[in-house]
Design goal:
By secondary structure, this protein is of the alpha+beta class. Helix content is 32%, strand content 15%.
Length: 486
């Protein structure tokens, strides 16, 4: 769907007419926030072929199977069901972008080392004589099969009629597999930025910091991160000066992509820096701030925090406006997380991948800093307020008919509930496609239990490096090999 690294200087070829068709169809009907994945080459091929065959015909594809159940592709699925009379999907699994038991269930990679993505064989049929379009049939190859076992099944089938197809009735969201529990919608959402009529629990929330240059902006050594970034910024400023000099010398036809030095040992390029070269914008090698961050769960790193040299800081200045600002944030994995739903809490600025494309819900919100304060990470923290809304407090107090619940109680209740195996199992499909919604448990006593458990978990997770060592006994089995590798 795009180059992984701007240093590759290998942007996608533009297809204006085709991309406009994708925008008018798949993108227009998608409910995802980030729709970039809908411009992947195989989805472009689907759009092109669907238009190419007109009113009648058959398309056969062997492609990445991500479109079958990904959140971003719900608009694509809605369009396919509308445009085609019959759809047959033979899902061969093999998604090795997962881990643990889920990876084992996915089984062997269909193309061996050639692909880590799941693979699907798709047959899309347009037949105007069929009265009801959108007849969808799926066959899942099954769990824990090797590549050879999957291919042997294909050989044995020989034709479509020998396959035991499952007829799928999509839901209103365009989900084919893992359809959501509709009762989930009755619960209060954690956040609702794009739903003005909704009453969310949190007034604001944010993705974690996205640097797009982690090797430069993160380090376990505070001195090393300063030295690395000053070296990179010095090179960037030299490129700005060189561009200005070249243009002044009359090289009006020189393109920026042919001018820039893309040596990854000198700099990690991003959109802001490429535009900065064009506009003659120099960077300051005096950092706005170096602060502690949660880079991954239970893994702290020093973060070089700078709006120009971090790709996106999102709403983090309202959660952690200064290095000394106190806060706690519940980080949940983002919609469509590859590793499934997970949750973690921290009192440090989180990276966007501390949880997979995580969203962070704070205990406190700080007023937007002034321009001067925004450039001083060690200034006094601005005024803070509770991030949990008055509407959320009233909701829980009214439900339990008590007035003693505090917003902090609700915050830790949420953290406890999001760890509940019952909640996570029952609403697994919802949690893979949308932000969590929070029910009220049956009794006030149950609410208190979850709130206390959430508070205890928070102390363990935030202060993980201060906990007593777990007392364990290691038993050496008789006749165990002397070499542990055996």
């Amino acid at each position: 769907a795009g180059q992984n690294n701007a240093n590759d200087n290998n942007q996608n070829t533009a297809y204006p007419a085709l991309d406009q068709r994708i925008m008018d169809t798949y993108v227009a009907r998608s409910s995802a926030t980030n729709k970039n994945a809908l411009y992947d080459s195989y989805i472009r091929a689907m759009r092109w072929a669907s238009d190419r065959i007109g009113e009648r015909g058959i398309i056969g594809f062997v492609t990445n199977a991500g479109f079958v159940d990904s959140n971003a592709a719900n608009g694509l699925r809605l369009c396919l069901a509308q445009e085609f009379s019959s759809i047959y999907i033979l899902h061969l699994r093999g998604n090795q972008r997962t881990a643990g038991e889920l990876s084992r269930q996915e089984g062997g990679k269909i193309f061996g080392s050639g692909s880590r993505a799941p693979i699907a064989i798709s047959l899309l049929v347009k037949n105007p004589a069929v009265p009801a379009p959108g007849q969808i049939y799926i066959y899942d190859i099954g769990d824990n099969l090797t590549r050879e076992e999957k291919l042997a099944k294909l050989v044995a089938w020989e034709q479509l009629s020998t396959i035991d197809w499952q007829r799928i009735q999509p839901d209103n969201y365009g989900d084919w597999l893992q359809q959501r529990d509709l009762g989930f919608e009755q619960f209060m959402p954690l956040g609702a930025k794009k739903q003005p009529t909704a009453q969310p629990i949190f007034a604001n929330y944010s993705s974690g910091v996205k640097t797009n240059r982690d090797a430069w902006c993160y380090n376990a050594d505070k001195a090393a991160i300063t030295a690395n970034m000053q070296r990179m910024i010095g090179f960037y400023n030299a490129e700005v000066a060189r561009w200005i000099a070249v243009r002044a010398a009359g090289a009006d036809t020189l393109e920026l992509k042919d001018f820039i030095d893309f040596d990854a040992t000198k700099i990690s390029w991003d959109r802001a820096q490429v535009n900065g070269i064009k506009n003659g914008q120099c960077g300051s090698d005096i950092p706005i701030g170096i602060m502690q961050s949660i880079y991954r769960p239970f893994t702290k790193q020093w973060l070089y925090f700078d709006r120009f040299f971090n790709n996106c800081v999102y709403q983090m200045p309202q959660l952690f406006p200064t290095a000394a600002a106190e806060n706690r944030v519940i980080c949940v994995s983002g919609i469509g997380a590859r590793s499934g739903f997970s949750v973690f809490i921290t009192d440090k600025t989180p990276d966007v991948q501390a949880m997979d494309n995580g969203q962070c819900f704070p205990l406190y919100l700080y007023a937007k800093p002034t321009t001067a304060a925004a450039n001083d990470l060690f200034a006094a923290a601005p005024e803070r307020s509770d991030a949990i809304t008055d509407a959320a407090l009233a909701h829980f107090c009214n439900y339990y008919t008590v007035t003693t619940i505090s917003k902090e109680d609700i915050f830790y209740y949420i953290y406890g509930l999001l760890h509940s195996p019952d909640y996570r199992h029952r609403y697994a499909a919802n949690l893979s496609k949308q932000l969590p919604r929070i029910p009220c448990v049956a009794t006030y006593t149950d609410f208190q239990h979850f709130s206390r458990a959430g508070r205890q978990l928070a102390e363990l997770h935030i202060n993980y490096d201060q906990q007593a060592m777990y007392s364990a006994t290691i038993t050496i089995q008789p006749n165990a090999p002397s070499d542990p590798k055996q």
